Amino acid sequence: MKTKLATLMLSLAIFGSAHADVKTLEQNLKTNYPDLPVKGVYQSPVQGIYEVYTSGRIVYTNQDAKYFFVGNLVDIKQQKNMTEERIAELGKIDVKSLPLNQAIKYVKGKGERTLYVFSDPDCPYCQRLEQNMVGVDNVTVYVFLYPLTSLHPNAEKVSNQIWCSKNPAEAWTNYMLNRKLPTNSKSCSSPIQKNIALGQKLNIDGTPTLFLQDGQRLSGVPSDAKQIEALLQTAK
């Protein structure tokens, strides 16, 4: 009984110490790097080293926050890239909380699988994604128009024209595949600014950003339709 009590007390002491170290690190980060957008601080598998999650990436440091390690933490024995796994875990979202009324919806085939995409109409990588989607079937896609005007100054105007067209899904596809804007667009209330605020809240800093139906985040363009199919299957 005494042994169990001693073990419990030791565990609580270690937990309390680790918690205190995280708090110290958080304070040091705020003091030393007030402009660093820190989203979370966590104990890493290495004693005395902590994960700092910022802008969709992980860097490592100790509680002093004076020096940083930038790169991948790898478990050689298990053949695992632990940094990539943690980024994937921390980047997940609850897709049920997404406001689907702010997205363009299109369905291919039975639409049994689901894909959520934050996309800029003037982003060439987003255009390539839509080209790859031509070869994908049985999926429901929700496109959140997310213009990055710092890179594509006309993208917000284009986004509004697409949203306000008679058939936004058709207008989206026609623009992304054929570069043809809808001619029947009228002024309307669009969710573009709400999407921009939502994307910032979700730490989306590039397009396209995709979310699978299990909440997994994917940044960038899958190489082809086969890779998209494989990703959709893993999240089914």
Task: Give the overall silhouette.
Answer: globular
Query: Briefly, what CATH class of the largest domain?
Result: Alpha Beta
Succession of helices and strands = HEEEEEEHEEHEHHHEEH
Query: Could you tell me how far the N terminus lies from the C terminus, measured between alpha carbons in angstroms?
Result: 48 Å
| Tally of structural domains | 2
Spatial extent as radius of gyration: 22 Å
Summarize the structure.
By secondary structure, this protein is α+β, with helices and mostly antiparallel strands. It has helices spanning 2-32, 82-90, 124-133, 155-163, 168-178, 192-201, 225-234; strands at residues 38-43, 50-54, 57-61, 68-69, 74-75, 80-81, 104-108, 113-119, 139-145, 209-212, 217-219.
How would you explain this protein's 3D organization?
With 236 residues, this protein is α+β, with helices and mostly antiparallel strands. The chain folds into two domains: 75 residues, Disulphide bond isomerase, DsbC/G, N-terminal (Nuclear Transport Factor 2, Chain: A); 140 residues, Glutaredoxin. A five-stranded mixed β-sheet has the order 7-9-8-10-11. A hairpin with a 2-residue loop joins strand 2 and strand 3. The longest helix is centred in the N-terminal third of the chain and has 31 residues. About 6% of the residues have low confidence. Pfam families: DsbC_N, Thioredoxin_2. It is found in: Periplasm. Required for disulfide bond formation in some periplasmic proteins. Acts by transferring its disulfide bond to other proteins and is reduced in the process. Keywords: Disulfide bond, Periplasm, Redox-active center, Signal. This is Thiol:disulfide interchange protein.
